[in-house]
Amino acid sequence: MKRILNLTVTASLVIAFGVIAKAQSGGNVLIKNATVMTAAKGTLENTDILVTNGKIAKIGKNIAAPANAKVIDATGKYVSPGIIDAHSHSMLDAINEGSLAVTSMVRTRDVIDPKDVAIYRALAGGVTSALLLHGSANPIGGQSTTVKFKWGRPADEFPIEGAPPGIKFALGENVKRSNFTPQAGQTPRYPRTRMGTMEVLRDAFRRAKDYKQSLDDFKAGKTKVPPRRDLELEPLVEVLEGKRLVHCHGYRSDEHLNLMLLADEFGFRIATLQHALEAYKIAPEVAKRGTGASIFADSWSYKLEAYDSIPYNGYILWKNGVLVSINSDSDERMRRLNLDAAKMEKYGGVPEEEALKMITLNPAKQLGIDKRTGSIEQGKDGDILIWNVHPFSPYSHVEMTLIEGDVYFDRAKDIANREVLAKEREALEKLDMNKAPGAGGTPPRIPAERRIADRDEADRGDNR
Amino acid sequence: MRFQSSDFRFQVDMKKRFIPLTVAILVAANFAFSQNDGAEQNKTGRAGTFAIINARIVTVSGAVIENGNVIIQNGKIAAVGAGASVPSGAEKIDGKGLTVFPGMIDAGTNLGLTEIGQGLNASVDTAEVGNINANAKAFTGVNPHSAHVNVTRVNGITTVVSSPTGGLISGQATLINLVGSTQAEMAIEPLAGLVVNFPRIAQFGGFGGGGGFGGQGLQIDFNEAIKRRDTQIDELRKAFKSAENYGRAMDAYAKDKTLPAVLTDLKFEAMVPYVRGEKVIFFTAERERDIRAVAKFVAEMKVKGIIVGGQEAWKAADELKKNNIAVIYTNIYSLPVREDDPYDSLYEAPSKMQQAGIKYCISTGEAGPEVRDLPYHAGLASSFGLSKEDALKSVTLYPAQILGVADKLGSIEVGKMANVVVTDGDMLDPRTNVKYLFIEGRMLPLTSRHTELFDSFKDRKSSDILP
Questions:
Q1: Do B120 and B179 sit in the same domain of this protein?
Q2: Residue B210: its chain A contacts at CB < 8 A?
Q3: Residue A442: pLDDT over 70
C-alpha cells in the first residue's frame, strides 16, 4: 500500500508542506524573551534575537520589532543554534559508487533529492545543516556536499555557497568488503585487507602528486603540452593543496593513525575522522594534527570494529583538545541529536555548552561554515531552533526551526495541517489508480526506488 | 584481547572440572583472572543488608516519598518510608540529594543472544533454522558474560526479556535479571513466553513480523499477498491444533497406560502450556490489520496474547481490550512508515495507547548493545504526549504487570525483589548518573566494558613524533 500511494501522496505532501515553506518571513524575524543557548558565549536569559535579511542583526533585551519582522514570542522557551549533522546520507538518490577502490570523480551533488521526507523529519528534530557524504565502500569515495535543509526549495538552493568542498575516504571492514560476497563471476575488488587499503591510498596520492607536478610544470612553462584533465586525480590535488576537506570513515584507531601519518607524509591535514569510535585511544595524536573527530555518541558492538567503542570517547577527545562533533549517519537518529549531545554530560562530564557545541559550532568548524552558522552570534545566519524546554531534557521537542530567519518547521502548523492532509489522503485512496492491485483498480507503475534499495544496503552496514 | 582472554578462561574452567589441576595451571588461571577480568570477578556484586538513607524515593506504585529510607535485606525490599528503621549491621548509603527508583524492565530485547550482529556469526544465536521452533529456548542461548549485560544494567535497566527471532514460531523467550554467572542465576522466568512472528500481508516479499513492512524484490498482487498470509496463518493454526492434540494424547496416556504411547515431539511438547492458555504468547505485529488478525487468532485459539511491535496498536484498541491483549511497544526509535504519516506518529503512539485504555509498555526492541537507551525511549514518548509518570511506569511497573511479575518487580514496595537504582536525577534524563545499583539485593559495581576501556585510555600520553 505504501508504495502504491507513493506517486500521488508524495506530490500532495510537497504541496501541503510547501504551504509552510511559502509562509515565511523573508528572513526578518524577532524572537522575543527566550532563554538563549548561544553555543559560543553562554546562555542568556530573557533575551531577544533580531534576524534581518536572514542574518542575526542583534541579540539583547527589549529589542523593538521592525515593521517588516515576524515576531515570535518565545517566553518560557529555549533557543539554540540549528543542529549540524556532519555525517548524513539523507537526500541522496545513490550513496555508494563501490565499483572501484578510488571514485573521487563522483559527486553527491549530482544525486540530491530535495523531496526526501527525511529532510522534513530532520528539521522537526532541529537539524538545519548537514554534510552529505558518499558511502564507505571504498578507500577513496566521492565528493561530499554541505547543505542547509531548505525543505520546499529547489535542489540548487540546498548546497551552502562558499562551503569548502569535501571528499569521503574510508577504512576498515566496509572497504575490505568484509560483509559482502562477490556475485558469481565477479572479481573481488582490491583491497581485501587493511594492508591493501593503505596501498590504495598511497598509490592514489603518488599519482595525484605526479599529476600536480605535470600541471605545475605546464603552468611554469616547463612543458608545452598541458596534461590531459584527470577527474579522478583533480580532487586529490585539491586535497594536497589544502583546498578540499577529507572526511574519513573508520573505526580502529591504528587505521586512523596510519591515515594521518600518510597525510603527514603528503603534507595535508585530515579534516575529520568519521565515526572514530576508537579515537580515544589516539586522542593526543589526533589533537596534535588539528584533525577533528565526528563521532556517534554511544553506538557500539554492531560490528567487530565497533566493539571497543565507548561513550566516553567524546569526553576523552574533548579533554585532549580535539574538535568533536556528534553525527547521526541515519535519517532516524538525526532526529534526536540533542539527546546524544546530552549524553556527553553523563559520560565523563563534558560541560553543557561544550556538549551543545558538539552538535552546532564544532561541526560548523569541521565543515568550514562556522563563519556563517553554528552559533547564535551577531552576523551569523539566522539558523535557530525554538524548544519547548531545555534541549537536553528528555522531555524536549522542537517547536520551530528557522533557517536564515525563515520558518522551515513549525510544530503548531504541522499539527494544524494534519486534518487537511488526512482528508486529502482519503480522497486519493479512493481514486481508481490507487486501488490495491487485484481490488479492481489498475495498479500504477511502481517507480524504481533506487534510493531505498541503497538504503537497505546501508542497513546491512555499508555506511556505518 | 577480550576474546583471547575469555577463550583462555573457558579452557581453564574445563580443565578445572575434568582434569586434575597442576600448580602451573592454577597459577596461570589466577594470573588470567587478575590480569584481564577484574570486573568479571565481581560481576555478580555482593549480597548484604543495605540501608539507603534520606533519599527521595520514587516508588512508582504509590506517591513519591520526598525523604525516606529504603532497606534491602535477603535480596528483597524489606522496608520503605520516612520512618523505616535501619537494621543493626546494615551498610548505610547516604541518599541525600539522590533518588531511588525501581530497576527498569525492557520486555522486548534479544539481549545476550548476539554479541556482534554484523560479520561475526559465531556470536549470533537469535534465530534457528526452520519455521516451527517452539522448543528453542532463549534461556539456553543467553550469554551471561556478554559485555552487553553490564553496559545495560549500569544505566538502570535491571531486567529484560530476551527473545529468539525468525521463522513462524521462533522459540521461547526468557525473563532475566542482568546479574549472574549462569543462565539459571539470571533467570526470573526461564520460559517466559512463546514468540510467534505473526504472518502479515507483505507485498514486497519478506515474511513474518519483525519491524519492517516489506523486504526487497518485486511487488506481488494484493490478493496474492493476502492468500500467502492466510496460508501461513493456516500453518500456524495447524501447529497450535497439533500441539493441543499432543497435550491431550499425553494426558490420556498418563491416565491410561493401555493406550498407545505418544511419540515424543519436542516442538509440540514445548507448545502445550501456551496453546492451553496457561502461558503468554508474544505475537510480533505492527500494522492495524495485522494486529486485528492477531486479536482474532487469540480469540479463536483461546490463548493469552501480547503484541510486540505495535506501531498502529492504538487503532485497534477495541479488539485489543476485548481480548485482553497488551502491547510491548518497540518503535520509539523507528521512522514513520508512510511518507505522509505525521513526523511524530511513532513518538505519539504510547500516548495514544494510554488514551485508548490499552495496556502497554515501552521497549527498545534492541538486540543488546542499545538496550541501555530504554529510559530515553520513555522520555521521548513523554515529550510527545505521555505524562512523565506514565513514561516512568512504561519502563517499570507496566512491563512487570504485562509479564505477570508485578508481585516481584516494577516498583519500590516491601516484599519485592530488590532491583533498585539510585541516581543523581531523573532516571529518564540522559544527563543523569546512576550512583548505586542493586539487583536481587546484590550491590553491583558500576563497571562495564566501557568503564574498563575508559580507565585504560583516559590518561594516555602520546609517544608520537610529528615529522
A1: yes
A2: none
A3: no
Give the residue carrying C-alpha cell 558565549: A41
B466 lies in a domain?
A: no
The whole domain housing B8 covers: 2-36
Q: What pLDDT, on the 0 to 100 scale, is given for residue B89? A: 95
Provide the domain count of chain B: 3
Indicate which of B126, B343, B435, B447 best probes the interface with A, i.e. most A CBs within 10 Å of its own CB. Answer: B343
Are B15 and B126 part of one and the same domain? no
Q: How many CB atoms lie within 10 A of CB A421?
A: 18
| C-beta separation of A392 from A341 below 8 A | yes
Residue B393 CA to its chain's centroid (Å): 16
Name A52's bridge partners: A55
- What's B439's domain CATH number? 2.30.40.10
Q: Which residue of A has its CA nearest to B459?
A: A316
Give me the total of CB pairs closer than 8 Å, taking one residue from chain A and one from chain B: 164
* Judgement on whether residues B130 and B153 belong to the same structural domain of the protein: yes
A302 contacts B117? CB cut-off 8 A: yes
The answer to the question of residue B464 being in a domain is no
Range A102-131 average pLDDT: 97
CB atoms within 10 A of CB B122: 8
Q: Is B463 part of a structural domain of the chain?
A: no
Which three-class secondary structure state does DSSP give residue A337? helix
Residues lower than pLDDT 50 in chain B: 1-41, 205-217, 467
Task: Domains for chain A: give ranges and CATH numbers.
Answer: 2-19+414-456 (no CATH), 83-373 (3.20.20.140)
B119: buried, middle or exposed (CB in 10 Å: 19+, 13-18, 0-12)? Answer: middle
Q: What's the one-letter identity of residue A395?
A: Y
Q: Which grid coordinates are listed for B156?
A: 538502570
Own/partner contacts of A266-270, CB < 8 Å, gap of 24 or more, are A266/A205, A266/A209, A266/A240, A267/A240, A268/A239, A268/A240, A268/A242, A269/A242, A270/A246
| Mean pLDDT of chain A, nearest integer | 90
Q: B268 vs A317, B167, B194, B263, B271, CA distance in Å?
A: 55, 16, 12, 11, 5
Report which secondary-structure segment, H or E, holds B201.
none
- B303, B218 Cβ separation under 8 angstroms: no
- pTM for the whole structure: 0.91
What are the C-alpha distances in Å from B39 to residues A24, B24, B35, B150, B451?
57, 24, 10, 10, 10
The C-alpha angle A346, A80, A167, rounded to 5 degrees, equals 80
Angle between helices A337-346 and B374-383 (to 10 degrees): 130
Rounded Cα distance between A427 and A423, Å, is 6
